[in-house]
Every structure is written in C-alpha cells, then in structure tokens.
Amino acid sequence: MMDEYDSRLMERALGAARSAIQNGENPIGCVLAVDGKVVAIGETRVACGGPACHGENSMIECLGHRIWSVASNAVLYSTLEPCLMCIGACINAGITKIYYGMDAVDGGGYALGAINAGLTNKLIIHGPTAHSQVVRLFQEYLTISRNEGGIQYARSLLAFHDTFHCKINKTYCKPYI
Ligand SMILES: [Zn+2]
C-alpha cells in the first residue's frame, strides 16, 4: 500500500506525465526516489525518439553506474505499469520496489517482475495505485494529440480498462515476496 509519502512521489510522476503531454507524447512519467528524495525524473519520448525511449529505461540509462550505489533503497514510481523492457532495466539496476499508477494493456512487465521476485526475493511491485488520475491524463491527451500512433495506443488502453477495470482494480496490491 502507498502511504502519504509514496502518494506525493506518485504525484511527481503524474507531473512528469503532464509534461509528456506538453511535448506531444502519451502521458507516461516516472520518478526514482532514494530515501524519499527524487534522484531522477523520466517521461516517455516514444513519439520523437522511438520505441525504446520510455521514461524508466531512459532514466536508468542516464543514471548509468550511479544507480548501483543507491538501488537497494531506490523506489520507482511510474504512472503506467512499466513494460517488459523497463522492468528488465529495473531488475538489472537493482531497484527493489516499484509503484505504478495504471495497468498497461499489453506489454506490461508485471509478470516478469513477479518471476524475478519469485527467484530472487528482491522485487516488490504495487499497482494500480492512481488509476483514475492516469485515465484522466490519457483522456486529456486524446483531446489534443494529432499523433496517430499515440492516439491508437491511448484509445486501446482506455478501452481495455473500460472493459476490465473492475476486475483489475480488486488486485490493488501485488506483493510477490
Ligand atoms: Zn517501458
């Protein structure tokens, strides 16, 4: 469960997602915190940079080897369930806790994280923790975006949640260790 502390950090991630909209991107943002202090902020850059330019992946790449010295106390807050690539980057970086706002339609990496957690006992993933706020951001994005690929992604994400949200939302917390 998120406490007030975590909620504030998720709010920062939501801010990064709002910034992504301003840059013509889907509203996906993230924050990495160590001992409650923000050490990096990321937002998606897929529209301008291509498929690997996700906020989490770019953030970890940007931190480079510095991440290893703080990873055991680092917590990732991401507005959307991190994808397989980004969960993989988090695992390699040694991040031990992830909170995400909304489940991803496809390509969500939760299962990979769960497998890793089962093997190593090191990773905890909680989500969805900010579903309605993230839905609103995607709806806002759809009213202003002209990026066909981005629009398609946002629409499929929202359609999925219209259908399955009730079931998914019951699984608020998913500890695997
Ligand atoms: Zn990703």
Compile the SSE list and pairings.
Layout: H1 4-22, E1 29-34, E2 37-43, H2 46-49, H3 55-63, H4 66-70, E3 74-80, H5 84-93, E4 97-102, H6 110-120, E5 124-126, H7 131-144, H8 148-169, E6 173-174
Parallel strand pairs: 3-4, 4-5
Antiparallel strand pairs: 1-2, 1-3, 5-6
Helix pairs in contact: 1-7, 5-6, 7-8
The protein binds zinc ion (ZN).
Short description:
By secondary structure, the chain is an alpha/beta fold.
**What structural category do the secondary elements indicate?**
alpha/beta
CATH structural fold name? Cytidine Deaminase, domain 2
CATH architecture label name: 3-Layer(aba) Sandwich
- Rg on CA atoms, Å: 15 Å
Helix residue percentage: 40-55%
The percentage of residues in β strands lies in: 15-25%
> Spans with pLDDT under 50 lasting ≥5 residues?
165-177
Number of domains: 1
User: Describe the biggest sheet?
Assistant: 6 strands, mixed
| Average pLDDT metric | 85
What is the rounded distance between the termini? 14 Å
**Count the helices. How many?**
8
